[in-house]
Structures are given as C-alpha cells and as structure tokens.
Design a protein that fits this description.
By secondary structure, the protein is mainly α. The protein has 3 domains: about 80 residues, no CATH class; about 110 residues, no CATH class; about 100 residues, no CATH class. The protein contains 13 helices and 2 strands; from the N terminus they run ααααααααααββααα. Strands 1-2 form a two-stranded antiparallel ribbon. α1 runs antiparallel to α4 and α2 runs antiparallel to α4. The radius of gyration is 25 Å and the shape is globular. It starts with a helix and ends in a 19-residue tail after the last helix. About 15% of the residues are buried.
C-alpha cells in the first residue's frame, strides 16, 4: 500500500471520531479516487454552498454522504469534508506520457493565441494600455540602478552555477553585468575569461515538473548566468513595487506586500460575506504575456502605436 493510503486511512478514522459519523471509517475508495475524483467533489460542494444549489450526493461514496449533507450548514463538518477531499490534491505524483504531452500541447495553443492577440494589441485598447504604462512607469521611477546586486537563485538552470562559460551580449547591451561578474567571481573564473563564449541569444528550454494531481507544471529554465542577473532585477523591483505611491494616478492605492499575506487573507475573509471584492485567477496567466505587451509597458516605444511592427510571439527563447 502507498504511504499516502496509510495516512489517508488514519485520517478517515480521525474524521469519523470527530464528526460523529462512524461510517466514514471504512469509506476508503482507493488512491486514484483520492487523486482524481475527490478534488472535483470539493469544488462541487463549494459551488453548491456558493450558489445555493443542492449537491449530487450520489457522486459521493456512501461513507461520506451524511458528512457532505451536513457540511452545507455546518462549517466544522465542511472543514472535515474538505480535509478528506483535498488530502491528495497537492501530491507530487508522476504523470504518464499522455498527460505530459497534453500539457505541452495546451502550452503551444496558448502561445499561438497570445501571439495572435499581441499582433493587434496596440490597436485594441490604447487608452487602457496608456494607463497601464503609467502604472508601470510609476514603479520603474523608483528603481535604483546602484542597488543592483546579482545573485544565484534557488531554481533550476540549464548551466552550472559553479563555473560559467557564457557572457550574453543581449544582457550586456542593457546592463554591464560583466563588470560585476569580474568583481565577484574567483580567480579560476577570471582565468577563463578569454575562453568565454558571447552568444547573441539566451537559449532556454521548457520542461515539465510535478505540480498536483491535475497534471505537471511547465517551467522555462534559463542559463545560470541569466538567472544571476534576473535575481537582482527581482529584488529591486520587489522593493520598488512595495513602496507607497501618490494617489494621483491610474494605479492602485495603498501598499503591496510580497512577504505578508495577512492583508490579502483578511480581505478575502471579509469579502466572502460582503462580496465587495473578488479575486481573479487567470488560467496560464504567465504564458499569456506577449512581447508587444512587455514592450509597451516597460518603454519599448514612446506610444502604443509604435509597437505594431514588433514580433508577436507569446513565448520566445
């Protein structure tokens, strides 16, 4: 038996004792049910509570039907039910080739659609894009070039973090990172400077890594030399974004915190009652950022009309 199964059977016994529904103890439906069907039932029960519908109890195992019915009016029972249904949701399972291939196919479809949208981006909503550009510029205005401190990140890379072989001219043309490189690396690196390669383009690759039961996550892996510089950009941009800004402008007011989720948590809790605010979770959000959009927002041209001729691919390496 899989270790997840042992733990889940024990969890069933605990929930049976705490909820008072003894039939839960013997309601184990197998690992595949926990991985695939249980998370769908959790969404189903929440949808019924949210919209005032009646749950289809026939979809639940016999041992969970009474708990599912009770969860509609009892928050504690709902918590027990969600513990059971979401227990394996984030399990890092190995997906078969078919599931992985489907993830890549979906990525390519999104990439194509993003490219098509990007081709006419500057003509679609020029006023909205101008406001968004002002929003981004209000952040970049606070960017301190003197605080630029490259470092290695914790993520995967395509090249070694210990010994470098590339100096990318595309990065050098924007920021002279090789000056910092020479000052920060050890003698062995400096002796190999003359043998370094100067590629014009940064080559990256898309790979699949475990995410949850729905399928793998696709990530774009870059060379260590490029990530070294990206980490510096991330740190300084994060600082600039968190600073308060004037209320006179087309941008959000107040503070943004990357290391404190208590504000978002409190707003989400209050809005679950008042319905004043809502969150939007866009599917494949990061894959839908086109190059023309980045050029507009970060200053690739002085006006939105100036980017019509740019390349419109949503993903480029």
């Amino acid at each position: 038996m899989h270790s997840l199964e042992y733990i889940y059977v024990s969890l069933l016994a605990d929930v049976a004792r705490l909820s008072g529904f003894s039939e839960i103890r013997g309601s184990y439906e197998g690992l595949q049910w926990c991985l695939n069907e249980a998370p769908k039932l959790e969404k189903h029960i929440l949808d019924c509570i949210e919209n005032g519908g009646n749950p289809d109890l026939d979809r639940f195992p016999d041992g969970l039907k009474r708990l599912a019915a009770a969860s509609l009016t009892d928050a504690v029972q709902l918590r027990y039910l969600r513990q059971l249904l979401l227990f394996s949701y984030k399990a890092e399972v190995t997906h078969d080739i078919k599931t992985t291939e489907k993830a890549f196919e979906n990525f390519l479809e999104v990439n194509t659609a993003t490219g098509e949208f990007g081709a006419g981006l500057s003509r679609s909503s020029p006023r909205l894009l101008d406001s968004a550009r002002q929003h981004v510029q209000s952040v970049l205005f606070r960017f301190r070039e003197t605080a630029f401190r490259p470092c290695h990140g914790p993520g995967a890379v395509t090249t070694s973090k210990e010994k470098w072989f590339h100096r990318y001219s595309t990065i050098e043309s924007v920021y002279p990172y090789s000056d910092i490189y020479f000052l920060s690396q050890n003698r062995e690196h400096l002796e190999d400077v003359d043998d370094m390669i100067w590629p014009d383009n940064i080559e990256a690759k898309v790979i699949a890594v475990p995410k949850d039961t729905r399928g793998p996550r696709l990530i774009c892996v870059h060379p260590a030399e490029a990530i070294w510089v990206q980490q510096a950009l991330w740190r300084e941009l994060g600082r600039a974004i968190c600073l308060p800004r004037s209320s006179k402008g087309p941008w959000p007011h107040g503070h943004i915190f990357f290391d404190d989720q208590s504000v978002n948590g409190r707003i989400a809790l209050l809005s679950s009652r008042s319905r004043r605010y809502a969150t939007i979770d866009m599917k494949e959000a990061s894959d839908r950022i086109s190059e023309p959009l980045v050029q507009i927002l970060f200053g690739g041209s002085t006006s939105t009309s100036g980017v019509v001729g740019l390349r419109s691919s949503g993903f480029q390496c």
